[in-house]
Design goal:
The protein is mainly alpha-helical. It is built from seven helices and two strands.
């Protein structure tokens, strides 16, 4: 088990790899230290999701060849006037409608940052359980991943669970 390189006490759950000037550097941190440190910066800076997004976006922009704004960069949110180019520069969206406006561009970006484009973590107390459709969608994703990893016994169990949910749904209707 790898321990946190910052505090040296807790197990490292966050592993950040950065390539700078052609040299690869990996930092292993516990969850608490990761929130205290900048994932792409120096020690002492605070963790910022917008900073993380801006970092990914600047890498994407650096790989593009043209300096002129693309059609995609000129895409504008009708609700707040935010352009995709401004989002790429700041890492911050202007309003809730930006998520819909820039959905096509955000989904691949979210895929780089996290495994899924939907929240699958803990839910706050008092909130509703996931809907049947959400449960089935999650199971289908797990099924796809199990087949890709050739975990056929697990895949069969997931297939059976999906069928069970669909049968229960049909009997309630």
């Amino acid at each position: 088990m790898i321990t946190c390189e910052v505090c040296g006490e807790k197990p490292a759950k966050i592993h950040v790899t950065q390539i700078k000037d052609g040299k690869k550097m990996t930092i292993h941190m516990c969850q608490e230290c990761a929130h205290k440190q900048a994932l792409g910066g120096s020690v002492g800076q605070k963790f910022s999701m917008s900073g993380l997004l801006a970092g990914f976006l600047s890498q994407e922009a650096a790989s593009s060849t043209s300096g002129a704004p693309t059609q995609e960069e000129l895409l504008t949110c009708e609700a707040c006037g935010q352009t995709y180019r401004a989002f790429k520069e700041s890492g911050k969206l202007g309003c809730a409608a930006c998520y819909d406006t820039f959905e096509k561009q955000l989904l691949p970006l979210l895929g780089k940052i996290q495994k899924r484009d939907r929240h699958v973590g803990k839910r706050p107390r008092g909130t509703a359980e996931p809907s049947l459709e959400e449960q089935k969608a999650d199971l289908r994703l797990q099924l796809k991943q199990a087949v890709e990893r050739e975990e056929f016994e697990r895949a069969a169990a997931l297939r059976d669970e999906i069928r069970r949910l669909e049968e229960n749904e049909g009997s309630k209707a």
